[in-house]
Amino acid sequence: MKVLLIGRYNDTKSLTGPERFAKGMLNNLSEKTNVHFADYFYNGKEYSIFQKLFGYSIINKNITRLGLFRLFFFILKFKPDVIHILNYERNAVIACFASKFFKTKLIYTSHGLIRYEDRLYNNPSFSLKLKNKFSEKYILKSSDCIVFVSEFLEQLTLKEYKFLNKKFYIIPPGVDKNFYGREVSISHSDILEIVTFEYHPSRLKGISTLISVLNENDFNDFLSVLSDSKNIIVLNHKSIILGKNDYSSYREFLKNKDVIVCLSEYDTFSLFTAEAMCSGLIPIVSEHTGIRDYITNVENGFIINNFDKSELKSVLQKISTDKTLKNKMSSYAMNIYSELNWDSVINRYFKIYNSKEL
Question: Above 90 in pLDDT, residue 248?
Fold first, then answer.
């Protein structure tokens, strides 16, 4: 079987969730089948218009960076059995168009809803908004099946695109094996180590709510905020704001932490939260995050009403004062790895690749 992955290949240490997913798919599929990754000249400041249209650069034996025209002809020559669009990128429209010239399965993994994000958060130019709207609609309509990273995203997409009549699947992103396992630092055993993060404007309100609760109450805790934003202000509280960690150091950072808080207005999955759970952190998430599908209240985490300060306070007190509950929930949180490990994720994708119904 020949599989062509379409996505953004990031070889730096600082990776977004979809970029980690793309890299994980390539690495794990390479062990099982003939796979090639088609990257693009994404950086507008670094690459010329000529490169974006006709560029060709070999990154390694199974990764090639291609301009739009070169991508089209590469697909016709490679003739993959499966074209898998790993995340929304506008250049994927070319792959959708090329797939019509021969028999192949076209699969799209959706990590977000760009039309919704542009309307509420991204504030793009009018022309970019139109490009995104057309591209996303064309990719969704052209795909033989759509894989959503969560039920939350599936429901949101079907509200925005009521015309969709496709095969739908829900498969979470994979979590690397090195995140699985718990290491507790004895020196911090009496302090509730809390982590939260902000790499999207939809989380700012949730961070403000958390900080407000901690400032107003006397918890024996320490807060770490992962963020590059200058809009986060922490007053009267034991805390630190850290710049965006590179991926390799994130696992080390989680070693002695207890709680991961993801209170968001819009979060289709939250791979950071999933990785933290596999490391034994107890999740506290809002109703508007896709990771809620893997959380059972007061068993392996908490799902709370978005930005409800009294409920958040009650949950933090429960974890802080009941060490037996904390240890039990930490252990149960790690069990999420049985569903999110890469072997499980890849096997589910292979069932789609081999499906006779598509």
Answer: no
275: nearest Cα among 198, 181, 345, 193: 181
| Residue length of the chain | 358
pLDDT in tens, 120-139: 988 899 999 999 999 999 99
Query: DSSP characters for 181-192?
Result: S----GGGTTSE
**C-alpha torsion 210→216→218→219, nearest 10:** 0
Encoded amino acid at 318, one letter: K
The CA-atom distances, in angstroms, between 101 and each of 72, 229, 355 are 10, 46, 21
Please say whether the beta carbons of 304 and 261 come within 8 A. Answer: no
What pLDDT sits at residue 247?
57
- Read off the pTM: 0.92
- Estimate the crossing angle of helix 271-278 against helix 323-334, to 10 degrees: 110
Q: What is the DSSP letter of 12?
A: S
**In 245-267, which positions are buried (b, 16+ CB within 10 angstroms) versus exposed (e)?**
bebeebbeebebbbbbbbbbbbb
For residue 241, the tally of other CB atoms under 10 A from its CB is 16
- Work out the percent of the chain whose per-residue pLDDT is above 90: 70
Q: Where are the alpha helices (H) located in the chain, listed in sequence order?
A: 17-29, 49-54, 68-78, 92-98, 114-117, 126-142, 151-160, 204-216, 247-254, 271-278, 309-321, 323-334, 337-340, 342-353
- Tens digits of per-residue pLDDT, 210-222? 989 998 888 888 8
